[in-house]
Design a protein that fits this description.
The structure is a single chain. This protein has four helices and five strands. By secondary structure, the chain is an alpha+beta fold. The protein has one domain (3-121): Cytidine Deaminase, domain 2, CATH 3.40.140.10. Strands 2-1-3-4-5 form a five-stranded mixed β-sheet. The radius of gyration is 14 Å and the shape is globular. Bound molecules: tetrahydrodeoxyuridine. Tetrahydrodeoxyuridine (THU) binds at residues 22, 25, 27, 29, 45, 47, 54, 56-58, 88-89, 92.
C-alpha cells in the first residue's frame, strides 16, 4: 500500500476520533481499518468510569469488523488528537496480530506520522496455531 493511500486512511481515522469517548484521559483516538474488499471500518476509544473497562480505538474497529463477518484486512490507521503520537498498545497489538499479522500500520496526529507494520509491532506473537 502506498504512502498516499495510508495518509488517506489516517484522515478517516481522524474523523473516527471525533466520536471518541475519553472524558478521563482526554486522549481522543480514532482507528480506520481497511478490509480486503476495500471497505473501511472505523473505531474510537470508549472509556469508562471504571477505567480498566475502557476499550481502545483499534480494538473497537477490529471487533466491529469481525462482528460483521469480516476477518481479512489490508491496512490500519490510528489517529490521536494530541501533541505526541503513539503506536498501538500491547493489548491491541495482540488483537491486530490475530486478524492481520502482516499489514501496514500508520499512526499519527496533525503534525507527524509514522508507518510500520503489524509484524514489527508484535514480533514473536502469541498464537495457538503451530
Ligand atoms: N488508546 C487507544 O485508543 N489506543 C491505543 O493503542 C492506546 C491507548 C486509548 C485508551 C484510552 O482511552 C486513552 O487512549 C489513553 O490511554
Amino acid at each position: 500500500m502506498d504512502k498516499d493511500s495510508l495518509l488517506q486512511l489516517l484522515n478517516q481515522a481522524k474523523q473516527a476520533a471525533q466520536n471518541a469517548y475519553a472524558p478521563y484521559s482526554g486522549y481522543k483516538v480514532g482507528a480506520a481499518l481497511l478490509d480486503s474488499h476495500g471497505k473501511i471500518h472505523l473505531g474510537c476509544n470508549v472509556e469508562n468510569a471504571s477505567y480498566s473497562l475502557s476499550n481502545c480505538a483499534e480494538r473497537t474497529a477490529i471487533f466491529k469488523a469481525v462482528s460483521e463477518g469480516v476477518r481479512s484486512f489490508q491496512a490500519l490507521a490510528v489517529w490521536v488528537e494530541a501533541d505526541t503520537i503513539f503506536p498501538p498498545c500491547g493489548a491491541c497489538r495482540q488483537v491486530i496480530s490475530e486478524f492481520a499479522p502482516n499489514i501496514p500500520v500508520i499512526f499519527g496526529n496533525a503534525h507527524q506520522y509514522e508507518i510500520t507494520d503489524s509484524a514489527t509491532l508484535l514480533p514473536s506473537a502469541f498464537s495457538l496455531s503451530p
